[in-house]
Design brief:
By secondary structure, the chain is mainly α. It is about 45% helix and about 5% strand.
Length: about 170
């Protein structure tokens, strides 16, 4: 049986380059993508509708694949294929969200996994919590000041993009 790796990412990564399917999408739109996938799975009987709280049906049905693809200049066929892939792999797959995604997106991803029966693939014994120290505003200002005054020669960014993540007023 073949495995398939689909990657949804904003920038190019080695994982994305090696994926069977790659969809380029800003992190801010990934919540909507998961919402659209759940809606598609509800419409096509890809998941048990009784598992979805009736109060959420309106939330999920508010955006279709065609609308989402058109609004974001995406290939709707790629998104439909992604929906078909997770539907056909119920209970044998996992949808994983990267560390930079907001908690709301992770909650929706967890719901999608639960609706697909993928919770059997969770590895609770070996999961990890990564605690990172967060820099204060003053520390960030000192860093920017040091860069501007040539006191700092180089900065290496790991899993961050200062263009998107730093406040616009910091120069």
């Amino acid at each position: 049986e073949l495995n398939k790796l689909a990657v949804v990412e904003a920038g190019m990564t080695l994982t994305g380059l090696n994926a069977d399917e790659r969809l380029r999408l800003k992190p801010g739109l990934q919540f909507s993508l998961i919402r659209v996938l759940i809606n598609e799975l509800i419409k096509t009987n890809g998941i048990d509708k009784s598992k979805v709280d009736p109060g959420l049906n309106k939330f999920f049905s508010g955006l279709t694949i065609d609308e989402f693809a058109a609004q974001n200049s995406l290939d709707k066929n790629k998104i439909k294929q992604l929906a078909d892939d997770v539907k056909s792999s119920r209970g044998k797959s996992i949808v994983y969200g990267g560390d930079i995604l907001p908690s709301e997106t992770h909650m929706l991803i967890n719901l999608l996994n639960e609706l697909l029966g993928n919770e059997v693939n969770y590895d609770f014994e070996n999961s990890f919590i990564q605690n990172r120290a967060v820099s204060s505003s003053d520390e960030i200002k000192d860093l920017v000041d040091g860069l501007n005054k040539n006191r700092i020669g180089a900065v290496i960014h790991l899993e961050s993009n200062p263009v998107y993540e730093l406040a616009p007023g910091l120069k």
